[in-house]
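W.,

You were right to be curious about this one. When I first looked at the sequence I had no strong expectations either way, so I just let the prediction run and decided to look at it fresh. Below is the sequence, 80 residues in total, followed by the output.
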Amino acid sequence: MSVTRVVHFSFPFLVHYCIPVDIINDMTHTGEEVPQPIACKRYSGKFMVRVPPEIHRNLAIQASESGVSLNRIAGVKLSR
């Protein structure tokens, strides 16, 4: 016996997150798990970014001159 999980999304949710309805219906019909939309996932607030050494140096200098951490300076720049 197979169990089919039906996933219902509200219309505004689908429009806002651009969920391809046909794909969701197809996945549900074939018994595949529909992945959670990225916008609904929980994030830790941590990720690693690799940058060239010169950019690292410049950001470290800016942070030091501003009296804030490198993380703070990078966060501000990423949020722009």
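Here's what jumped out at me. The mean pLDDT is 81. And, maybe more interesting for your project: The two ends are 52 Å apart (CA to CA).

Coffee later to discuss?

I.
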